[in-house]
Amino acid sequence: MKIIVKENDIEGGAAAFKIFEKGIKNGAKVLGLATGSTPVTLYQNWVKSDLNCDNLTSINLDEYVGLKPDNPQSYHYFMQKHLFDKKPFKKSYVPDGLEATKDPQAAADHYNQIIKDNPIDIQLLGIGRNGHIAFNEPGSSFDTVTREVKLTDNTIKANSRFFDNIDEVPKSAICMGIANIMSAKKVVLMAFGKNKAHAIKEMIEGPVTEQVPASILQKHLDVVVIIDKAAASELDDKYKK
Ligand code: PGA
Asked: What pLDDT band is residue 217 in, cutting at 50, 70 and 90?
């Protein structure tokens, strides 16, 4: 893993954007994208850049089951607002939260086929405080592909900050699996803030275990981790150069 420690999320977002820009200039065409607070500074750099996205395809990690694309809490809406309204891609895929209400398995199968037909060149990830990647929570098998996942109480609580009240947070999501993520040619994982420091340490220094889903990235051949000093604060010094 290549580890880049920056002062804060502003510098981290700029560093992440440079990696995507370089990858795209070198031929990357399919990008796996992510939502959440972490990638916001990356997308800010992206929208103010002159990067042409007309030939790019994006495949997002996940979507809540039951939310319409125009629901402001949906990940579809998040992507429109933070990136695609200003930088439309040739084609952008986000799991269909409504199709998933009727038939989650069909929605998941459909998404796995999309990933198969569009192999991901660069996959963007955040990380949860418990080491989750997307909604792949501790205990998820490393073999998982896109499926419906029940959200844990902790994740529901963490995500309730975006909703008027906790009862409005959907109870499940359609989420790319760990095997889908590992199939990307390159992975860029971003994390900022002290509350991610322990998960970052476990991901990088700990054993590879399904109890820390992100630890599987130790086995991927091309991973760049972009963190700020706070997220790096529990790491052994040898990783902080
Ligand atoms: P965050 O979420 O970017 O909002 O911190 C990341 C995650 O939980 O995967």
From this structure: very high
